[in-house]
Amino acid sequence: MSEKQILNDIELQDENEKESLSSTEEETYFENDDVARYEKKKINPFFKFFRTLFFRMTFDQILKGRKGNLSIKDMNEIPRTLRLEKYERQLSKQWSKEEHSKHPSLFRAIFRQEWMQFVLIYFTTAIYELFALAFPLMSSFIIKWLNKEDAGVGMGILWIALTILFQLITTLSSEFTKKWAFTLGLRIRNGLIGIIYDKALKLNSAGIVEPGKLINLMGNDCPVYIGNIEMIMFGSASPVMFIVLFVLIWNNMGKWVYVPLVVFVVFVALNVFFGMMYGFFYYKFIYAKDKRLSFFSEILKNIKFVKYNRWEKPMVKKTLAKRVLEIIFLFFVGFSRSLFFSLAIQIGSAMSIAIFTVMIFKEAQFQLAAVITTISLFNSIRVPVRTIGLLATCTSTINVAMTRIEKFLLTRELPPISINNSSSENAIEMKNVKFIYPNGETAFECEDLNIKKGEFVCVIGSVGSGKSSFLMSVLSELERQEGDVTINGKVTYASQNPWLMNSSVRENILFLNSFDKKKYNQVVKDACLVTDIDSLMGGDAYVVSEKGSNLSGGQRQRIALARALYDSKDIMLLDDPLSAVDFQVGTYIFENAIQKSLKQKTRIIVTNQMYLLEKADRILVLENNKLAFNGSLEELKKSDLASSQLVKTLSVKSEKAEDQTEEIITGDAYATKVREESREVGRLPLSVYFNYIKSGSFILFAMVVLMLVGRIVALYYYNASLTKWGKSLHPLLKLPQGKKEFFYQFCYSFIGDTVGVFGCEICLVLFCITVSVRLHKQTINKLLRCKLGFFDITPIGRIQNLFTRDFHMLDFNMPYYIEPLIVNISTILITFITIVQTSIYLVIMVLAILIIFVAIYSFVIKPVIELQRLDSIMRGPIFVHFDQTILGLPIVRASGAQISFKEKLIAKVKNNTVALYACKMTKYWFLQRSDWIGALISIVTVIVIVVTKLKHSMEPSLAGTALTNITSIPTSITNFAMSLIEIETFMQSTERILMINKLRNEESERVKEKYVEPSKLWPTTGKIEFVDFKFRYRRGLPVVLNKISAVVEDKEKLVLLVELVVESPL
């Protein structure tokens, strides 16, 4: 097949193939200015109490989310407790006190600000944990009541009433502890984001060595309090519960209480140790992730350089190599978490078996009521034991995050540019100055330099001679080690690499200044932008994407220059402003903008274009970061500097525009729209779950299922053996210790349960790591092999969000929530099997409960997913804005735009806050209904036991087994519901990652098949041949090269001539 046919096939395919990441909504060119609002109007106190009590704050979003996509316009107002600006100022004030102390602590600053909220959350947590012991304690009295022949109706009603009361107190205290802890964590997150952003605005651009680390600070470290506060409060309140627990055990079992106490101390010590090990490896995991993300951020920022040099494979290989250490630490994080999760689950049963084994060995007498109460009490501490283990883990996690943030906040700041308004004739005065880079190397130094007001100064020198460093020194963006600098007047700066905001063309030019139509039109004309703006969809309302990737290089540079012209101040620092334009356009801009419009300004231009030197009042030559020459062009020609030799050989010509009515038409006037972030509609398709499982190992997945089934079987025999042993303890049988073979079966089933739990946990950790590793490898390969145009229309911040937040969900959060899901599935299933054995009527209750649960879940899951998607979409702009600010720090600082940029960040954080808050409150709405289901199971079971006893006869051992199981059923159902809904929402990350894997490669496999494999010795010559070659920059743009046929022979020298088009309106 000929090359011509191949090229035509490529063109045809490019025309017809659909974009794989097309959004379900209409893509827009224009910026969305919707910003969440704060709650203003006062709400009726009764209605507010009712709405808060039943978590109806986001019920409107639930109804809207069931109909379709949600946007910021659909969100309620932000609660007053989450006011960003006020809280950030308060937290910043507390940190300022700490910053200047001997041992600064960010946590102390946070605690001083929020100590009342911490105390309130601790109080409600303590209430929950203490009342969690009330129902197990009541079980003893219920068993004694069941053993009576003449059981009174009044006592039965009392048991039912107390069950309702205890369930009401525990559910409400648990729900509001979680709500207040989340709100506190979200408030702290927002405050920390604001403080970090403020700090970044006060640092010089060279001082921010690792931008990827800063992104990780905002993405993973700032939200560290969300979720961890809840665990810390539950863990810190647990000791009070444990003291009460062993007092109750001592009251029931007497001197034998010391046996479970020893087991408890050993288990808790192990849990704390595993928690500390977890925290240690988590710190190592995050540190390794920082290194990988920093390296990957550099790849993204230099993606054109990588792809032009065909470095995709080496970059993938190096990124994956950095990922290896991260995965090793991630495995140990999962391993240590599996150990303390398993211990927390089994500690109740272990203490029960330990005390009963010693009592049997010592031939002590058992009473069924005491046995049931002991097992019930021990079962009730599974969650507190788990949280006390997580106390060390979460504390360590927060400590790691706070240490990292503290280190950044304590970075030494450089003083801002000092502006004087003296009457001196000099605009800039430098005397014996030396500026250094962060690594201590010299950036710029000179003995004496005075630049007069209104002078036109050209700065020249070889590559790396320190030209840009000189401008950074004037801007105070580098550390001054010695000497004096005086700046007389305000400064405007245009950087070497054009920096643009993610806003409209007009906003980029105005840059926070008020709109003056006459001045604006003149600036657009002087910058040669009239034709370009006319070609853009929407004109100057066209939104520039991140780094101006939807504009050409010339357009970017001219818009940046136009911004400097519109914001022109006393001193203009222009770093190579004409490097991306051709000679005629550059001459036009120079004559009309720099020479004419800025005639009264002090103009300092860094340039390598020698035709500007003839107009310069003064020329500065830099060599080896030192000022080597300061004088006129004629003086430079007479000097012995290396730069003078170049000047002597140049024929500097002055080309002026013949008439001001002429307009230069540039050859790069085209528009490319930025792709909106893709967004699916409705619930996740089953294919996402299948692809997630397929990305892992089917063998490991089968092992997880096998271990889960083994645990269910072991739990069934555990309850069956307990019931049989309980029956053998009946006083009429006169067996003080019951039948020992049933007790031994009870012990064996516990061992089987322990093996099943730990085996399931380990297999799950390995499975999730396998999924994460394979998806990361596929995504990296796919991303670096996709077309370069993808990076032009996709903000880097969005990709960084994918590799920070989304992959963190896969690495860490998914196994964290899958583990309790599978554990609670087995617990709930066995509980249902056990309680239906007490009465056939409970089968109806179980079926009704299942129907109600599925109905509520189906009602709420679609809105939760929509809110989660909105949260993810609203999180991306925060990273994009932060990344843009870092790139444009010198311009932002020189223009005094810090406050305005901070306001933009707050607007983006507000949008994310309202989406995240609505998502979490909707989940709590669902969890409250799940709590009611768990409480209903306990209440109905007690009612059935009481009614059965009053009407017929109830076997105490069977009722006792049921009571021991329903002790933890509300917690199990709540944890199961929470895990279920979190997993489905976290799978959004998997969905987004899988969408990236659908990106088109640079070249389709169908076209590749048509190529002839060259020999290993190819190429032998440097010949290039074009046959009817067509080219455009990316899909949707016009063809810029059409049917080009040319041959470049080996060793030929080629000169490209470009026709300059000049049109006159006359």
Question: Your description of this structure?
Answer:
By secondary structure, the protein is of the alpha/beta class. Among the domains are: 45-412 and 694-996, ABC transporter transmembrane region fold; 1005-1063, no CATH class. 63% of the residues lie in helices and 8% in strands. The chain contains 33 helices and 14 strands. A six-stranded mixed beta sheet has the order 6-7-8-4-9-10, sandwiched between helices. A four-stranded mixed beta sheet has the order 1-5-2-3. Strands 11-14 form a two-stranded antiparallel ribbon. Helix 6 (134-147) runs antiparallel to helix 7. The longest helix is centred in the last third of the chain and has 54 residues, at 898-951.
Please give a handful of descriptors for the protein shown:
alpha/beta; about 65% helix; four-stranded mixed sheet; about 1050 residues; ABC transporter transmembrane region fold; ATP-binding; 33 helices; membrane
